[in-house]
Give the backbone structure.
Amino acid sequence: MTLTILLVISYLIGAIPTGVVLTRMVAGEDVRKAGSGNIGATNVYRVAGRTMGILTLVGDCLKGVLPVVVASNYFELEVSQIALVALAAFLGHCYPIYLGFKGGKGVATALGIFLVLSPLSVLCVLGVFIAVLYIWRFISLASISAAATVPLLVLLFEQSPPLVMATLVIAGIVIWRHRENIARLRSGTENRFNL
């Protein structure tokens, strides 16, 4: 029963649409109707400015951090159960009930999850993300590269089958949700990111 309640709460926390809430409060517009239409930090950055983009990134990251920290520190759960809590928060962000199950791509929320579950993996994968972004200037390509790398890093540093399985699911969904970006990268029409 405790695990079920935790999963539901984690999903509902993950489902909070940070970018939508912030842009409505500050800019008075719906980020889903501007730019790429995505609710994540990159589109919020383009639509509402740097500050809102950063706040969205932090908020989406916290949606991954909080449920996993609570599950890990305040409940006697097995690693497999904590992995399920992490997945629930991640799925909440990608498929939020508040927005008709049309959410973000999950990169920032996944970052928050792995900051708790495997900080060494995050340190290494941030290096991959920054290197790809610096060379090619595509946030989508950097995100896809990071997602493809993180399961190997979790396997290396954590050596926990439940965490590796959860990481594979998360990475797979992140890459799948970037399929339109992949098509644009292949056609040469993807937008480059410039500070």
Notes: The chain has a mean pLDDT of 95. The longest helix spans residues 50-74. Residues 2-187 form one domain.
